[in-house]
């Protein structure tokens, strides 16, 4: 697997120095803070990423005030090394492993936050989000026919998988003995597809924070929720992904209404939600309708929260770079292959100083005020290798394979997203 050379990493950083705005790299300002989310692919062992990748990751950390990180592995060495590169200005909070029983196979990972001590105050709450045993039991009982059908289908899938495994062993022995030139493919166990939401594949991780004010003003207070939801290509898994997202929305919004019990009144979701946009216009409309239902509840309720998911909207400046099928400006594509908007930031707010969805159309209009964006390192790497007029879809399939091999594992296959919030101040 190839990766950028040390000299190429120098050139990458020089390009970024020349025009950070072209690549959506957030500017550090004294009048505002940057809240960000970044799925850093398999951040575990230090040896698995190059020195150049670590330096670019650290440079990005230093541009943020609060960074939610997904795909932290059980081994915390790489996260600790990244924090040390970013410097003593940053603190850290990290979950234990989620996604499997420790010591057993599964989607084991941690979720974590890096935060700037001078602008962000870490407060007392740290927890995960889960559905209690009684809720799971009730769900299984009331929808038992659907679950029974799914279990029967699963039995058939396992039986077919065992048959393929046996055939693979026979075919491999024949291939190894030179009896055939056809090398067999090892079968893989198909994923178990649930008909209804049962529980999170990885428990979202929550920490409470405050954004320190400029002068005598109240801070922003919020619970940050770091989530990495289900991924899967099968059509039924896409439905399961949607159900998991809606369950998380429901948990946050229901919790946000209980003002007498919540530690902080505002909730900010940052994470890789793996939302599927096969048809970006139709899928986005469906999800936006769900969010509008919540917003309508806010208008009717004294305890409901306003909801804003800016990465469902086309950015007023950058949206033309991500056109929809209709040609209209579209939302950022946050995966390195520029196909999907898996990564999201959602603001559930009672504080009127925090932006609602109407603020998105004017995002970035005033320096230091509300904005949102994405560090488009794919554009940066294209500029280095193919020039500023190049486009990803102009590359041949072999060029694309070689291009992605340079960084998808070494750096990441997701690009970081961010929102800028003006610091609280007396005149707000």
Q: How would you summarize what this structure contains?
A:
With 428 residues, the protein is an alpha+beta fold. Helices cover 33% and strands 19% of the residues.
Structure explained in plain terms:
The protein has 428 residues and is of the alpha+beta class. The protein has two domains: 6-143 and 196-422, Endonuclease/exonuclease/phosphatase (Deoxyribonuclease I, Chain A, 4-Layer Sandwich); 144-194, no CATH class. 33% of the residues lie in helices and 19% in strands. It contains nine helices and twelve strands. It has helices spanning 6-18, 51-63, 77-86, 133-142, 144-176, 235-257, 280-300, 377-386, 397-405; strands at 32-43, 66-72, 90-94, 110-116, 120-128, 205-211, 220-228, 266-272, 306-308, 343-349, 371-374, 417-422. A six-stranded mixed β-sheet has the order 3-4-2-1-12-11, with helices on one face. The chain is globular. The model has no long low-confidence stretch (mean pLDDT 92).
Helical content stands at 25-40%
Number of strands: 12
What would the average pLDDT be, to the nearest integer?
Answer: 92
Shape: globular
Specify the CATH architecture of the largest domain. 4-Layer Sandwich
Q: What is the level 1 CATH name of the largest domain?
A: Alpha Beta
Instruction: Give me the CATH superfamily of the largest domain.
Output: Endonuclease/exonuclease/phosphatase
Distance between the termini: 52 Å
Largest sheet: 6 strands, mixed
Which fold name corresponds to the CATH topology of the largest domain? Deoxyribonuclease I, Chain A
| Tally of helical segments | 9
> Rounded to an integer, what's the Rg over CA atoms?
23 Å
What's the number of domains? 2
Secondary structure category: alpha+beta
* Poorly predicted tracts of residues: none
Strand order of the largest sheet: 3-4-2-1-12-11
In N-to-C order, the SSE pattern is HEHEHEEEHHEEHEHEEEHHE
Report strand %.
Answer: 15-25%
């Amino acid at each position: 697997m190839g990766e950028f050379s040390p000299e190429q990493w120098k050139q990458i950083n020089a390009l970024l120095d020349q025009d950070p705005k072209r690549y959506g790299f957030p500017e550090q300002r004294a009048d505002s803070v940057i809240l960000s989310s970044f799925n850093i692919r398999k951040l575990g062992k230090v040896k698995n990423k190059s020195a150049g990748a670590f330096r670019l990751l650290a440079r990005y950390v230093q541009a943020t005030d609060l960074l939610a990180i997904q795909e932290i592995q059980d081994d915390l060495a790489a996260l600790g090394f990244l924090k040390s590169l970013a410097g003593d200005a940053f603190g850290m909070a990290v979950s234990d492993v989620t996604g499997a029983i420790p010591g057993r196979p599964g989607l084991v990972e941690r979720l974590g936050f890096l935060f700037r001590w001078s602008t962000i105050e870490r407060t007392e709450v740290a927890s995960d989000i889960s559905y209690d045993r009684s809720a799971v039991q009730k769900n299984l009982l009331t929808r038992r026919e659907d679950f029974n059908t799914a279990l029967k289908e699963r039995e058939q899938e396992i039986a077919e998988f065992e048959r393929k495994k046996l055939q693979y062993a026979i075919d491999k022995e024949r291939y190894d003995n030179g009896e055939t030139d056809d090398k067999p493919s090892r079968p893989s166990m198909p994923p178990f597809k649930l008909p209804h939401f049962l529980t999170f594949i990885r428990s979202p991780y929550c920490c409470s924070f405050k954004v320190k004010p400029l002068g005598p003003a109240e801070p922003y207070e919020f619970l940050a929720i770091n989530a990495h939801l289900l991924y899967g290509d099968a059509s039924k898994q896409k439905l399961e992904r949607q159900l998991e997202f809606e369950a998380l929305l429901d948990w946050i919004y229901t919790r946000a209404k209980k003002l007498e019990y919540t530690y902080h009144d505002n909730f900010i979701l940052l994470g890789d939600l793996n939302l599927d946009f096969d048809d970006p216009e139709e899928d986005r409309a469906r999800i936006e309708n769900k969010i509008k239902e919540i917003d309508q509840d806010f208008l009717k309720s004294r305890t409901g929260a306003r909801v804003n998911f800016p990465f469902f909207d086309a950015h007023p400046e950058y949206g033309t770079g991500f056109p929809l099928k209709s040609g209209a400006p579209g939302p950022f594509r946050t995966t390195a292959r520029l196909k999907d908007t898996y990564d999201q930031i959602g603001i559930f707010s009672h504080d009127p100083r925090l932006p609602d969805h109407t603020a998105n159309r004017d995002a970035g209009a005033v320096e230091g005020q509300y904005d949102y964006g994405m560090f488009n390192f794919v554009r940066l790497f294209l500029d280095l290798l193919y020039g500023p007029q190049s486009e990803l879809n102009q590359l041949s399939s072999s060029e694309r394979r070689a291009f992605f091999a340079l960084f998808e594992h070494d750096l990441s296959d997701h690009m970081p997203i961010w929102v800028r919030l003006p610091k609280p101040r007396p005149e707000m």
